[in-house]
Amino acid sequence: MQAVFKGSPNFDTDRKPIDRIVIHWFGEGTLESANTRFQNKSSQVSAHYGISDSRLWQWVKEENVAYHAGVYSMNQRSIGIEHDATTTKNASEETYQASIKLVAEICKKYNIPADRTHIIKHSEVKATACCGTLDIDRIVREVSLLLTPVQEINDQTKIDLGVHGVMEVQAIKSKLNDMMRDLEDSHKAIDSLSSQLKGFTDKWVQEYKLSTDSGLVQVEIEMARLLPLEDEYEKTIEAIEEIVGHFQDKNSRLTALGAVRQEIKAVSDKLDDCQKKLSTRKILKTITVFGYTFKIYREG
Length: 300
Ligand SMILES: [Zn+2]
Description:
By secondary structure, the protein is an alpha/beta fold. The protein is built from eight helices and ten strands. Strands 1-5-4-7-3-8 form a six-stranded mixed beta sheet. Strands 2-6 form a two-stranded antiparallel sheet. Helix 3 (93-110) packs across helix 4 (136-147). The longest helix has 46 residues, at 162-207. The radius of gyration is 49 Å and the shape is rod-shaped. Residues 24, 122, 128, 130 line the site of zinc ion.
């Protein structure tokens, strides 16, 4: 906020390090009447700043000593700010906002802590009614908030949540725990399914003598190759079920087919051997199951 410099003859240059801000009110009068008083050399009083609503006037430069606190050593180390508040008029919201902004700027500039030790009422320097109804605690509180750096939140940040906040966090945590449990259950279910699937695949890779890196897709291709016709498959299953009983599901059917296939192959191999030996015998019947051809010969 840019101050309008009015000037005052009531100052000197014997400045000490600035570490206090003294808050005043007009008590009576206006910004204009304060200006008249501060510009009058015989009054021997002044202030650095005066605020009335959105107006900010300056009479003494910060680098110089203004005569506002009534105690010279305090004048040397402080900046004095007048506020438009009187015995019959409270400070306006605009005046508060302008004051908060100005005090914050000064605190920042001189590294003055925003607390009630460093931002003080005129009456805390000497016996006076100043600064009356002006709410200095509000100004200090809001300046402190303005100057508090925005905290970055990370995993290590500790935040005071209060009772309500803690309860909310606990509710969220317990919900998260529930979700984690559900997730673990899902993982277990998936693990169980994959191990079933792997068992199924491994078994049929072995059964069909597929290469060891074969997966479910190769197994299915092989099954499709071996069982080209649904009708034929159903007929074969029925034939097998007549002997071994009803199958519960597709897998047990396939398992049985695999077993039968091996049996058939073993028999087929034996028969091939026999065929060579019995080549002179007459073929009675030829049957084909799963691509294996059986030749039944007449004895003798
Ligand atoms: Zn005062």
